[in-house]
Amino acid sequence: MNVLMCAPDFFDIEYEINPWMHEDNPVVPSKAREQWDGLRRIYSQLGWNVQLLEPVQGLPDLVFTANGGLVYDNKVVLPHFRHPDRQGETEKFRKWFENAGYTNLYSPKYDFEGEGDALIWNDVIFAGYPWRTDKPAHKELADFLDATVVSLQLIDPRFYHLDTAFTIVDKDTVALYPKAFSEESIASVHNLVPNVIEATDQDALAYGLNAVSDGKHIVVPEGATHVMDRFRELGLEVFPCPISEFQKSGGGVKCLTLELRS
Ligand code: ARG
Q1: The domain spanning residue 44 has which CATH number?
Q2: In angstroms, what is the span from residue 21 Cα to ligand 1's centroid?
Q3: Is 255 considered catalytic here?
Q4: Domain span holding position 52
């Protein structure tokens, strides 16, 4: 696995754009650093290649690199952030991709928040809407990437990005928190995916679906004990990771990680 991360040097709660964020519940910088270092260490132990984006003062959410785009088939769909507070991040991600040698970049017309709302399972892209990504952006993804996009409707504002309620586990398996989705969306997942793990309220509230898997190892926010057991039953090795400082911002393991597929 090849992933992009950004150190939490300037990470804090400077605005409130989701139900988890409260300016009067600030980040403890030393603890955030410790948790982020811990996550990076797990990835290194797994032999994953971690690339880094330079932190920028005034862009506290730049740590959430999952929102920095969607990389598929060497093509990059850049983000179009819904909230002005995050729109300054787009240029930072664009520059990073250009310097890294990606030449086929697309800027969507509609709101689109990268891997936060677009998760790749085999050759299917599951895409979330409506909280942060507009449904018409899904068509832009399908056209630019020449891929099948399955739209999933999120119905609970606490689970405002797809990656807060949906995990790609392996080639036969995804995990999801049913209460975060419309019934029709859950049915479309079951139609395609042979094995669908359902997370409990406790798992979901611990951000347990905000996990990263390579199909054999899965890194999961600690506290999501039920879903971790399901992953172990499948034969995966589970790596619990504390992320409480990032959850103050509505983020977790997956949000801190952009997968650079080539
Ligand atoms: N504070 C950030 C926001 O609300 C958190 C982003 C979490 N990222 C994710 N991929 N779910 O935009």
Answers
A1: 3.75.10.10
A2: 10
A3: yes
A4: 2-259
